[in-house]
Design goal:
The chain is α+β, with helices and mostly antiparallel strands. The chain is 12% helix and 25% strand. The strands form two sheets. The chain has a three-stranded antiparallel sheet, with no helix packed on it. A hairpin with a 5-residue loop joins strand 1 and strand 2.
């Protein structure tokens, strides 16, 4: 996957390390769909209008951000 990406994904961990949010900023076009659909307001825009996890501890791993992202720029992983 490293050959495919121009940069490493940004990785955000919850305090208990049970939830991981990965954002590939190169893919993100800043549409805000993931931010709008997040029920817990975990996501926000950074200074470049790309998504980042502002409150990763509030994530409930509903996967709406991942499902709604048209650019496959965000992924949620939950500890099994």
């Amino acid at each position: 996957m490293k050959k495919f990406l121009k940069e490493e994904p940004q990785i955000y961990f919850s305090n208990d390390n049970k939830k991981i949010i990965k954002v590939i900023k190169y893919f993100c076009k800043g549409c805000g769909i993931c931010i709008h659909f997040c029920p817990k307001k975990v996501l926000d825009w950074d200074k470049d209008f790309k998504v980042f996890a502002k409150n990763p501890n509030d994530c409930i791993a509903c996967y709406l951000c991942e499902l709604m992202c048209p650019d496959f720029a965000i992924f949620v992983e939950k500890e099994k």
